[in-house]
């Protein structure tokens, strides 16, 4: 099983939409067995997946993967499973500093027990640098970081890489040497001079962190089809609108590149 965590220290970047649509892509297009874990107390990933009713929704709440030793046999027997976020318990975890080591250990142990049951595990995390995000980064093979093309997000790339506790380089050096950054993924991209300038600056200063494509670097354009698909709980390509088909034509090559980097295709 390949485990991918979506992580960013800024909210509002469309991270959950990328997580949901990637899960649909892996399961429905690539025919892979997919486990998706929502560690974000905002529960956007859980809401979309529940609404679509395409995946089996586990009775097990995501917080318990951290707080308790859970065996993979305790979750539903299906080829596409969501372990949903629970607001209150997830929020409490940062205040339990004495349990942080056991939280990460419990999550790691759980993933080992489902290693043969799924091909891909996708973990959506909260935008705060806390134990939930750290635990996910410690147990994952890959990390993908959606960002918006504004100066605040670009300035935050340094924290993503070099934060004292959850910076990717620190984790690679001390806790998870196999963690691989797939890349920074500009999301909600608009054809404005401001965003074009920021993308050019990003490409100049952080080219090695972007996802290479045949025609430049990966990015996902802003489209009304994405929030509509999320609200309906549907894959973008099943939205039944021209906007959905157009958006999917642009997004699919990006997802294929991510899957290729992960060795899934």
From TrEMBL:
InterPro entries per the UniProt record, alphabetical: AAA_dom, DNA_Partitioning_ATPase, P-loop_NTPase
Residues covered by the AAA domain: 1-180
Entry-linked Pfam families: AAA_31
Gene3D superfamilies per UniProt: P-loop containing nucleotide triphosphate hydrolases
Protein name per its UniProtKB record: Chromosome partitioning protein
Native source organism of the sequence: Methylomonas lenta
